[in-house]
Design a protein that fits this description.
Length: 186
């Protein structure tokens, strides 16, 4: 009986792993094609609109040849033509985060740092990643500022010393009203 060397056993193991990876990639490709076919059937888009023709000139009556831009088909079918979430998608948190942020700042009854806001809101969503959630909150706070519902107050010349509050908490001179000041412990 002939025994296999360690090198042969390692090679067999690598080949088995490669085979598994190829199988997974193949199945992933099949699922993607099935999704495109399903999308085309549901939306009734003309796939020729998404074919990138070859650079050669073609004669009249000949079909276009080239690559099909699958991403643009799926994007168009999902209705993602503008800003925001695609048509029919659900919010990951199932609540209106913008309103929750506004309510959080107002309930504090004083100017607060964005880190304090993140800490209060993250308690309600413990499964969320703190850093990603902080980025999302930053964008929503900027949206509230653009709407005029919240304002920022900069303490000193540093970007990190920005506090969020209601517009009525500032006087006409740009000073914080009594009792609405922020904690400098951050």
């Amino acid at each position: 009986m002939v025994s296999q060397t360690a090198g042969v056993i390692a090679l067999i193991k690598q080949l088995e792993e490669g085979k598994l990876k190829l199988k997974l990639e193949y199945e992933k490709g099949i699922r993607a094609l099935d999704q495109v076919i399903k999308t085309l059937c549901e939306v009734k888009l003309d796939p020729l609109n998404f074919v990138h023709a070859a650079k050669k000139t073609r004669k009249p009556g000949r079909p276009k040849t080239g690559e099909i831009n699958v991403r643009s088909i799926v994007k168009k079918a999902k209705g993602k033509n503008g800003r925001g979430r695609p048509a029919g998608s659900k919010s990951g948190t199932k609540v209106n985060l913008t309103q929750m942020l506004y309510d959080t700042v107002i309930s504090k009854n004083q100017f607060v740092h964005s880190r304090e806001i993140v800490e209060s809101v993250v308690k309600k969503f413990p499964h969320e990643d703190r850093i990603d959630f902080g980025k999302k909150i930053s964008v929503l706070l900027a949206s509230l500022k653009k709407q005029g519902r919240l304002i920022t107050f900069k303490d000193g010349g540093y970007r990190k010393n920005i506090y969020w509050g209601a517009p009525i908490w500032l006087s006409k001179e740009g000073r914080i009203s009594r009792g609405k000041g922020f904690k400098k412990s951050i």
